[in-house]
Specification:
By secondary structure, the chain is α/β, with parallel strands linked by helices. The chain folds into two domains: about 1-15 and about 240-425, UDP-n-acetylglucosamine1-carboxyvinyl-transferase, Chain, CATH 3.65.10.10; about 25-230, UDP-n-acetylglucosamine1-carboxyvinyl-transferase, Chain, CATH 3.65.10. About 30% of the residues lie in helices and about 25% in strands. The protein has helices at about 20-30, 50-60, 90-95, 105-110, 130-140, 170-180, 200-210, 240-255, 270-275, 315-320, 345-350, 380-390, 400-405, 410-415; strands at about 1-5, 15, 40-45, 65, 75-80, 90, 115-120, 145, 150-155, 165, 190, 215, 220-225, 235, 255-260, 280-285, 290, 300-305, 330, 350-355, 360-365, 370-375, 395-400, 420-425. The strands form six sheets. A four-stranded mixed beta sheet has the order 22-23-1-24. A four-stranded mixed beta sheet has the order 2-15-17-16. A four-stranded mixed beta sheet has the order 4-5-3-14, with helices on one face. The longest helix has 13 residues, at about 240-255. It is globular and about 65 Å long.
């Protein structure tokens, strides 16, 4: 099993490219199920989750072709074609490894009129039920059955009629599934209390490029006029705002300066606002975001929230960064109930963190000490990498397969800007 070794203390400096967004890519790939024509996605990140989702789509009859690219290039171009669906079943062996697999539910019901999907797996960061996905399918006219760990959705007469979906709470995944199901419905649909994340906007823009009729993009109320068919398209995956925020924290925790190349600054305002409050200098340029921290870090009080609030996917990285702040910070996690599993690992490195329910109090320390630590989920993994960059001595991060799910060639990017970091394999 691979490990990442970090010898901390180096100040990071230089240009660091930001890859295509993992969370957007895993939403755009199932759009290929909605048409017989090719869908070409550019700037697709090289990630284990992307490969896993491609394998799932192959099982359903989607061909995937990756254009040749140089080994030193980040991102890739993939063309997906679902000329004929050979299956509408997403099996347990694949779905259990990746929660995003549930996103084939909507497009399969929308195009084929039926879908059977295993209940999903993914990171163990808390209870993430799919009841909102199922209620959305029912609101659009599907009949739902649950049996033997699978969800079966059927469209009466082979095609969804469309309808009004009203979410009691904001759900990114359920909004995405509802959108993909509604674009091929017989009639109009409305999604109320829709998620407004940039990844939702990216999905809508891709669907529009494929011929869908969608209005209210980026708002709480999205209206869809169902189409008889969609066509193929070529679409560029948005830059990863979570990766960009993570590397911004890397600049901050090491007292460095990084130019994050290719970011969409408008998509990460809550992150940059929090960094500025912590004493970090942010400069927006035409094609990059400069993040500089030379005067120490100030403590923060932060609470996670749906977009445009502070992203839950940035909480662990900010916690690591605030371990080096001058004073006590308070973090409140409102999205997931079990997203502090990185706290004991940070404590092994000298962090002073107390957790009470959904709130964590982080008291800054003079220094962190390198130690063997174990990643528990994707974003927790990155928090340990950040701590290792600032710690004295060597940090060993184990279970790095979590990192490979969401950060494209992390050690290469960090090495290029001055980090002493390498991947080693026990095998």
């Amino acid at each position: 099993m691979d490990r990442i070794l970090i010898r901390g203390g180096n100040r990071l400096s230089g240009r660091l490219p930001i890859s295509g967004a993992k969370n957007a890519a895993l939403t755009l790939m199932p759009c290929a199920l909605l048409t017989e024509e090719p869908l070409t996605l550019r700037n697709l990140p090289r990630l284990a989750d992307v490969d896993g989702f491609g394998h799932l789509l192959n099982q359903l009859g989607v061909s995937t072709m990756v254009e040749g690219s140089r080994p030193d290039e980040f991102g890739r171009v993939m063309t997906l074609k679902a000329g004929r669906l050979t299956s509408t079943v997403a099996p347990y062996d694949i779905v259990r490894k990746m929660r995003a697999s549930i996103l084939v539910l909507g497009p399969l019901v929308g195009r084929a009129g039926e879908a059977t999907v295993s209940l999903p797996g993914g990171c163990a960061i808390g209870n993430r039920p799919i009841d909102l996905h199922l209620k959305a399918m029912e609101a659009l006219g599907a009949e739902i059955e649950l049996a033997a760990g699978y969800v079966k959705a059927m469209a009466p007469g082979g095609r969804l009629p469309g309808g009004r979906v009203s979410f009691p709470i904001v759900s990114v995944g359920a909004t995405e599934n509802a959108l993909m199901a509604a674009v091929l419905a017989k009639g109009p649909s409305v999604i109320e209390n829709a998620a407004r994340e940039p990844e939702i906007v990216d999905l809508c823009n891709c669907l529009v490029a494929m011929g869908a009729s969608i209005s209210g993009i980026g708002t709480e109320t999205i209206e869809i006029e169902g189409r008889d068919r969609l066509h193929g398209a070529t679409y560029r995956v948005m830059p990863d705002r979570i990766e960009a925020g993570s590397y911004a924290c890397a600049a901050a925790i090491t007292g460095g300066s990084l130019d994050l190349v290719g970011v969409a600054a408008a998509d990460m305002r809550a992150t940059t606002a929090a960094l500025i409050d912590a004493g970090v200098t942010i400069e927006e340029h035409a094609d990059f975001l400069r993040v500089t921290a030379t005067n120490g870090l100030s403590p923060l009080t932060l609470s996670t929230a749906p977009f445009p609030g502070f992203a839950t996917d940035m909480q662990a990285q900010f916690m690591a960064m605030l371990c080096m702040a001058d004073g006590a910070s308070v973090l409140t996690e409102t999205i997931f109930e079990n997203r502090y599993m990185h706290v004991p690992e940070l404590a092994r490195m000298g962090a002073d963190i107390q957790v009470r329910g959904r709130t964590a109090v982080v008291r800054g320390v003079d220094k962190m000490i390198g130690a063997p630590v174990m990643a528990t989920d994707l974003r927790a993994s990155m928090s340990l990498i950040l701590a290792g960059l600032a710690a004295e001595g060597e940090t060993q991060v184990q279970r790095v397969y979590h990192l490979d799910r969401g950060y494209e060639r992390l050690e290469e990017k960090l090495s290029a800007v001055g980090a002493d970091i390498e991947r080693v394999s026990d095998g």
